[in-house]
């Protein structure tokens, strides 16, 4: 543009940008999806630095936005770096006791807090009927959502439908944020909660275990088709141990047996570890390398810029792979893309050997040291 500086273009862009004082994000779950939403919200924070931003999320994942013991409302801090307010809900728990006084009181509190916030705009980045309804019920004057919502009836509650662009879900979320800001956005870095006491406690636990530099292995996955055999994780840990690299096996609720199988197969080269999400964030920050499938912890590692060896089966790494970090994605051509929640491991996934993973891990460790 002749005669117009980049600074002037930026000023013109800001002048045309809509004024939004209060903005609500709706992304309820799951772990990886909440993490994939963070770049779009960080971009909105940069576009509207003085706005109040709230986020409605399932209670189970609230620590991705706010450290465990930090207040969930008020000025932002290292413990709650992105949003001003976290509206946590517990839909699964509420369904179990739908008409109890306790459930009704909890639901009413969330409802009242959202309505009292008087949000100007709500953005549904989940595309489900329940998330669209929550965005609508917030009382926001405008509700944005993807034109091709994951559950098509969700669009009935949108006042603005956006054609999402990009291959990766992070890029798609950012394109919806751009529609809200009416400006092109630069992909920002992601801030996750940092709690000083938790950081110190994780350092202490690592010292007590004699663990310095380590690789983090995650044998779990959302469903069986995505789950690479646990004993192979143990074999990988054993081989890395021969190189002098210690391994930590992260596991979540219900994954205790997977961690035990991997630990036994490692011959003592790997130690199991479980904790809160706030603790998992602190632990992952300290890892030299992460190895795992298409899971929330893998996307957490990528968001924290930890090098990742990603072991993919039925899900598409172009859409769901590690984003914006050094990575090696392993996927066999026998795998076909599907989100069907099958219990049996994907046939293509089983074609990926422990040797394949070890070779990828060694390459990344060398690259990250250079």
What does this protein structure show overall?
The protein is an alpha/beta fold. It has two domains: about 10-180, Glycogen Phosphorylase B (Rossmann fold, 3-Layer(aba) Sandwich); about 195-370, Glycogen Phosphorylase B (Rossmann fold). The protein contains 14 helices and twelve strands. Strands 3-2-1-4-5-6 form a six-stranded parallel sheet, sandwiched between helices. Strands 9-8-7-10-11-12 form a six-stranded parallel sheet, with helices on both faces. Helix 2 (about 30-45) runs parallel beside helix 11, helix 8 (about 230-240) packs parallel to helix 9 (about 255-265) and helix 8 packs across helix 14 (about 355-370). The radius of gyration is 22 Å and the shape is globular. The chain starts with 5 loop residues before the first helix and ends with a helix.
Strand and helix map with partners:
Layout: H1 6-16, E1 22-26, H2 31-47, E2 52-58, E3 85-89, H3 91-96, H4 101-117, E4 121-124, H5 129-137, E5 142-146, E6 160-162, H6 169-181, H7 196-208, E7 214-218, H8 230-242, E8 246-250, H9 256-266, E9 270-273, H10 277-285, E10 289-292, H11 296-303, E11 308-312, H12 317-320, E12 327-331, H13 347-350, H14 354-369
Parallel strand pairs: 1-2, 1-4, 2-3, 4-5, 5-6, 7-8, 7-10, 8-9, 10-11, 11-12
Give me some keywords for this one.
single chain, 370 residues, alpha/beta, Rossmann fold, six-stranded parallel beta sheet, 14 helices, 12 strands, disordered N terminus
């Amino acid at each position: 543009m002749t005669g117009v500086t980049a600074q002037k273009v930026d000023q013109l862009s800001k002048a045309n940008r809509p004024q939004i004082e209060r903005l609500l994000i709706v992304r309820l779950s799951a772990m990886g999806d909440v993490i994939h939403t963070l770049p779009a919200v960080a971009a909105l924070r940069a576009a509207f630095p003085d706005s109040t931003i709230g986020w409605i999320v399932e209670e189970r994942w609230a620590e991705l936005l706010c450290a465990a013991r930090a207040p969930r409302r008020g000025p932002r801090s290292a413990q709650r770096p992105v949003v001003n307010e976290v509206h946590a809900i517990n839909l699964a728990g509420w369904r179990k006791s739908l008409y109890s006084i306790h459930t009704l009181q909890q639901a009413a509190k969330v409802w009242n807090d959202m309505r009292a916030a008087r949000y100007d705009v709500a953005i549904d980045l989940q595309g489900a009927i329940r998330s669209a309804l929550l965005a609508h019920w917030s009382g926001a004057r405008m509700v944005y959502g993807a034109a091709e919502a994951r559950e098509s009836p969700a669009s009935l509650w949108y006042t603005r439908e956006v054609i999402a662009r990009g291959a990766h879900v992070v890029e798609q979320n950012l394109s919806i944020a751009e529609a809200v800001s009416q400006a092109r956005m630069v992909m920002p870095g992601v801030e996750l909660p940092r709690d000083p006491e938790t950081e110190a406690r994780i350092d202490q636990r690592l010292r007590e275990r004699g663990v310095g530099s380590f690789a983090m292995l995650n044998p779990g996955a959302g469903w069986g088709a995505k789950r690479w055999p646990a004993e192979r994780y143990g074999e990988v840990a054993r081989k890395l141990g021969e190189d002098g690299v210690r391994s930590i096996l992260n596991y979540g609720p219900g994954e205790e047996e997977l961690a035990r199988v991997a630990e036994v197969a490692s011959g003592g080269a790997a130690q199991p570890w479980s904790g809160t999400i706030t603790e998992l964030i602190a632990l992952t920050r300290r890892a030299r390398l992460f190895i795992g499938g298409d899971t929330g912890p893998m996307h957490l590692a990528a968001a924290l810029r930890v090098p990742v060896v990603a072991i993919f089966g039925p899900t598409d790494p172009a859409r769901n792979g590690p984003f914006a970090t050094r990575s090696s994605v392993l996927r066999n051509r026998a795998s076909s893309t599907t989100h069907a929640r099958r219990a049996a491991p994907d046939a293509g996934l089983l074609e990926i050997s422990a040797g394949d993973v070890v070779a990828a891990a060694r390459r990344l460790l060398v690259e990250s040291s250079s």
